[in-house]
Design goal:
Elements (H helix, E strand, L loop, with lengths): L5 E2 L9 H10 L22 E3 L5 E6 L5 E7 L4 E3 L1
Antiparallel strand pairs: 1-5, 2-5, 3-4
Length: about 80
């Protein structure tokens, strides 16, 4: 199962006060993840909401031949449900 929610913020766009308050309410904790470490395995369903503040990540599908098919890049400013 893949993204339930992805919000991409165009460069220069600022959230309004109400939107920021909602995002802050939904992202009540911060987390730091090590590089090159899977956060969620394919088929797992997570409900945590994250806003990427630094670095980047990607979603991929593991093919039957063992390769990775990149589905999406996640960049700073994006809000994602893993």
């Amino acid at each position: 199962m893949w993204p339930l929610l992805v919000v991409i913020t165009p460069p220069g766009l600022q959230y309004g006060t109400r939107e920021e308050a909602l995002i802050d309410k939904l992202t009540v904790r911060s987390a730091r993840f090590a590089a090159n470490r899977p956060l969620v395995s394919e088929g797992e369903v997570e409900t945590d909401l994250y806003r990427i503040s630094k670095g980047w990540a990607y979603r991929y599908h593991a093919t039957t031949s063992g390769c990775r098919q990149i589905l999406d890049f996640l960049l700073p400013g994006e809000i994602v449900v893993l």
